[in-house]
Structures are given as C-alpha cells and as structure tokens.
Amino acid sequence: RKGVQVYVLCLVCCSNLIAFDHVGLTHESHKKDVEQVYLRCSEGSIEWMYPTGALIVNLRPNTSPASYKHLTVCIKPFKDSAGANIYLEKTGELKLLVRDGDRSPSKVYCFGYDQGGLFIEATPQQDISRKITGFQYELMSKGVASDLHTVSGELWDTAPCRPCSDTEVLLAVCTSDFVIRGSIQDVTNEAEEQESIIHVGVNKLYRQKSKVFQLTGESGNWRGQIKTLLECGVKPGDGDFLFTGRMHFGEARLGCAPRFKDFQRMYKEAKDKGLNPCEIGPD
Fold first, then answer.
1. Which domains can be identified in the chain, with CATH numbers?
2. Are the CB atoms for 137 and 242 separated by under 8 Å?
3. Name one GO molecular function term (predicted).
4. Contacts of 224 (CB under 8 A, 6+ apart)
5. Element (H, E) at 8
6. Per-residue pLDDT tens for 107-153?
7. CA dist., res. 222 & res. 225, Å (int)
8. Within 13 A of 103's CA, how many CA atoms are on the CB side?
9. pTM for the full model?
10. Residues 82-106 pLDDT 10s
C-alpha cells in the first residue's frame, strides 16, 4: 500500500530482519491503519519506524501446524525501542506484554505459541520522527526453552538459579549449544540490566555452535563470556567447572554448570550403568 514499506531478509532460511517504515512523519494519515506481517523463520528481528496505527505480527514457522503447541515464543525489545505498546493477542483479547517506555534492558518475554500472537499498537505522539519500535524474536521448542534458566518475563515461570540434577547435567551435555571445561576468571555485575557476565578461561572446548569462545591474541588461550542473572550471585572462584548453555539472542546464556569433579563422578556412574544419553570424554 502507498506510504508503507516492508522489507524482509531471510538469512540461511532461519532468521528474519524486517524493517517496517511509514513514509512521511505525519501522525494523522496513518493513525487508524492496522498492518499485518507474516514471519516464517525461527528467529529474527522487527523494526517499526515512525509507528502509527497498529501492527499484527503473525508467526508462521515452516513446521507442521501440529507442532505449534510445542513451541515457545520469546521476544527481547531493543534497548531504545519506543513509540508503541506490545500486546499478546488471542481471539480479540489483549494482554499487555511490553509497555511503551519500559526501560528494562535485556528483559525477555516468553509465551507459548498457542497463547496468541503479537499486536503492536502505536501510542499517541506529538512527534514520531525519532521513534522506532523494535525487538528480536526467537521460536523454540518448549523443552529447549525450559532449559534456559536465564529466560525471564511476565509470562515465564522458572527457577533460574537452582542447581541442576545429575540427569539434567548429562542431558545438557548432549543438547546444549556450548559445552566447555573452564574456570571463572572474573565476574562483571551489571545492576541496571540485572545480569552478571562470567569471564571464562577455557581449558577444553567440547562443543560450540557460535564463536563465543575464541583464541586470544595475547596469551593464545581460549576465552569467552557467558551471561546469567544477577540474582544467581556468581562469584570468581578456584577450580574448574563444566559450563553448558544455549545461544539466546546472540548471547551465550548459562545453563547447567557443575564443578568439573562432580561432572566426572556423575558421568562415570551413568556410564557404568549404561545410562549415558551421549558420549563425551570427561577428562
């Protein structure tokens, strides 16, 4: 339609980058418009420039509709997102998810795919020329989402800092995006974002899907950063840990992290009983 431009970019058939732009900066001309976009990728981001009216976001992943009930949707608003409220909508009922002006850096909002879709409504503005509403989104299976101890939000109920059981650790080793043996070199606490950044020195890299852990030029050692919630109270300490976790919105998020000696014990016990869900060298 004249006055509206939508750009969709799919990367490796798995992510969207959408720029939704009202051309012209007058509020009156579009204040009653309701536009729709359809997203078929499992992750990506949306930017709505100069928001007026409303935007309905339809998530239609390239999976069987029968599997939709097993999906969780998570969104992470951009730090400077402004100009609209984001609602969860189902059969005409709206539940406020993100209020315009909410400055909660790094906060993630998750809900079941079957709980509804996203309805983004612009708030009245005298000057919309500087407003951009935007967020990243991810779709994942509910089983994977439940393993993300760091996911938080109004609609998400987790025990983010509880220790993992032996079974959870062994499964995490098989299914996590990264698995490393390493030590905590330092911890940086970010009070505003309610997060801690764990600076990890890597002794052995078992697996990583993204290049979070890299060789440093100065020492030639592997290093990287993992994020977790500030409330978990992570502190530097002696000894090695087995760090597992997932990539979430481009960041490494901590999952299970037992002391390495405890992992060796549980791995050996499971192996002796033939109960290991997968093979990984404990040494």
1. 4-144 (2.60.120), 159-272 (2.40.50.120)
2. no
3. hormone activity
4. 180, 200, 202, 212, 213, 214, 252
5. strand 4-11
6. 888 888 888 889 999 988 776 567 888 999 988 876 555 544 434 44
7. 11
8. 2
9. 0.69
10. 889 999 998 888 999 999 988 776 6
